[in-house]
Amino acid sequence: MIYYFTQYVLQLAHGTGWQDPLSFLRLFRYTTMRAAGAAITALVLSWWLGPRIIAWLRELKFGQHYEDKAEQASSP
Question: Of 28, 37, 41, 49, which has the most beta carbons under 10 Å away?
Fold first, then answer.
């Protein structure tokens, strides 16, 4: 979405006095820049939402109940 927005802004600014100050928006044309932005966005969202989701799942008592196979093997 940011890519399309920046391309739209650059198209509007073409041939005006704003063309040079807005030229940094061309960075969003590069796949590596967009991939880095996506990775940073995912990291920030996981830091922000992760603890809240874990607390919510604990409140729901959502989890796995399993027996430890090592304890079963050691007892006769």
Answer: 28
In sequence order, the 6+-apart residues with CB closer than 8 A to the CB of 27 are 33
For residue 68, being part of any structural domain is answered with no
Q: What is the pLDDT of residues 37-67, one digit of tens each?
A: 899 999 999 999 999 999 999 899 887 777 7
**Could you tell me how many residues make up the chain?**
76
Instruction: Kindly state whether residue 74 falls inside one of the protein's structural domains.
Output: no
* Structural domain of 56: 2-62
pTM higher than 0.85, yes or no? Answer: no
Range list of H helices, 1-76? 2-13, 31-59, 69-74
**CA proximity to 22, closest of 8, 36, 32:** 8
